[in-house]
Amino acid sequence: MIYTDIATAAVAFREQIDRAQRILLLTHVNPDGDALGSLLGAYHALRDSGKEPIALASSALPSYCMGLPGVEAVHVYQRGDPLPEADLVWMLDTASLSRVGLIFDEHRATLASRPLIITDHHVTNDGGGSVNLIDPSAASTADLLFRLLRAMGLPVSPAAATCLTVGVITDTQSFQTSSTTPQTLRTAADLLETGADLRALIGAVYFSIPESTMRLSALVLNAMRREGALAWATVTRAQLALTGASDEASDDTITQLQRMAGVRVCVLFKERADGTVKISLRSVPGINVAAIALTWGGGGHTQAAGATLPMPLAEAFDAVLPLLRAALAESATA
Ligand SMILES: [Mn+2]
Question: For the chain, which domains are there?
Answer without folding.
Answer: 2-206 (3.90.1640.10), 212-333 (3.10.310.30)
